[in-house]
Design goal:
Length: about 220
């Protein structure tokens, strides 16, 4: 399914029992589509964007190289090999603190999977504020779905930050949309420049590095 120019979400249906995964984990994907211009038989890592309860495995892929470019037009119904899951982005949980999620670019995918895992009547793990950093609204691939999830779950709040409108994320924007951000457990995922900027901003506000958990998407 195309999400934006150069971005698709693949929906993988298991031939057997599939795999069990947690939110924020990733897999190694090997496409076998013979029509692919590049990447056939090659293994590449991609973050899982589906909830653990989803019958299918959903993977958000942005074209950042020959293989990911070719996957934009992979033939529906062709087979892929999946290895994993790996990773523990959300492995460290701190129920005593609310969470702030900051995602940008295709680095939004672990937060999409985690948001899809939320249910209105599910167990409460504190409040969650998601800041979605994008160049502009057209590059906020999951904006509509995340807004719908926020409407259905009182503990989840979603805010879009567009660079074209607001410039770089700054303290004023954080305090306006998440006034208690300095008290929260914080998870970052996005391109290297975004992660470095946000981490420096947070540490500059006195947040200890031990409360900032991050993954960088610099090779996916």
């Amino acid at each position: 399914m195309p999400l934006a120019r150069g971005v698709v979400e693949l929906k993988l249906r298991p031939e057997g029992e599939g795999i069990s995964h947690g939110v924020g984990q990733f897999i190694y994907l090997t496409p076998l589509d013979e029509t692919l211009a590049a990447g056939r038989g090659e293994e590449h890592p991609y973050t899982i964007a589906s909830a653990p309860s989803d019958e299918c495995l959903r993977i958000g892929i942005k074209e950042l190289g020959d293989a990911s470019h070719a996957l934009q037009t992979v033939t529906p119904g062709t087979r892929v090999l999946v290895e994993g899951p790996y990773g523990d982005f959300f492995g460290r949980r701190f129920p005593q603190r609310d969470m702030l999620w900051v995602g940008g670019g295709i680095g939004i995918t672990p937060f999409v999977g985690a948001a899809r895992n939320l249910t209105p009547d599910g167990p409460a793990e504190g409040r969650i504020q998601l800041l979605y950093l994008a160049k502009d609204c057209s590059r906020a691939y999951y904006m509509d779905e995340l807004g719908q999830i926020a409407e259905a779950n009182d503990a989840f709040t979603f805010t879009l930050h567009c660079y074209r409108d607001h410039g770089f994320l700054d303290e004023a924007f954080l305090r306006e949309h998440c006034p208690d951000f300095t008290e929260r457990e914080i998870y970052l995922c996005g391109p290297p420049g975004m992660n470095a900027h946000v981490r420096q901003l947070l540490i500059g506000q006195g947040i200890p590095a031990s409360r900032i958990h991050s993954e960088v998407f610099d090779f996916l």
